[in-house]
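Table 4 source record.
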Amino acid sequence: MEGHQEKGLKSRLREASSAELTGLVEENLEQLDAEEVRQVLRNSYVTSQIIEMLLTQRRVLSFHEVRGDLVRHPSTPEVHALRFVAGLFWKDLVEIGTDLRVRPRVRRAADRHLVNRLQGLAVGERIVIARRAGPSIIPQLRSDPEHRVISALLENPRLTEGSLMAVVASESANPKALAVVARHRKWGSRYTIRVALCRNMRAPAQVSIKILPSLKKIDLAAIERDRKLPASVRRRAAVLLGRSLD
């Protein structure tokens, strides 16, 4: 019987009208559990006043899921949303940072906390973030020493050619990462990316040599003259231009 009553309260909290919701919260405030509070926050009639009432209940605020919902909710006073951001998990920070329904200042705070944690995260966690991260996080990920993180970043729909150029043109780039970019079905076909790869002395020679036949003569000539590049790459550029490398 008690389980049915609990389920009934959750449904009532989620579906209540504006006046009913306020009354239900006031009546049950000190007994609400985490899931019931989450139902309140899912109600379209929840107001900042109701949320202020919920914020007085320390017991409920100890639940991570509740704090995450409060950070995301547009009616949560911004000062409280910002206070809770620091204690969220990295997955929450990624979601909040890319959710345009969340206030800009809160999104920026989530991004800052995520950036501060990146170095301490495992490779697998950084790979997940790379696939989903927003524009503010991408610059931090593109210099990741692990080529698998770069591979995941290439699948991020928010990655731009300009952001990727910072990877392929870097003199400290991981050669494995450059090879990953060259093989990518989307980015590896971009002409400016292909040129940048061939102009990067860190790119594996066999990668550049494979790309060279697709380049314009003006770019081949620049590669042929660039003495920082491997001799095998410069030689192949010269052959494609119809001359030998001195």
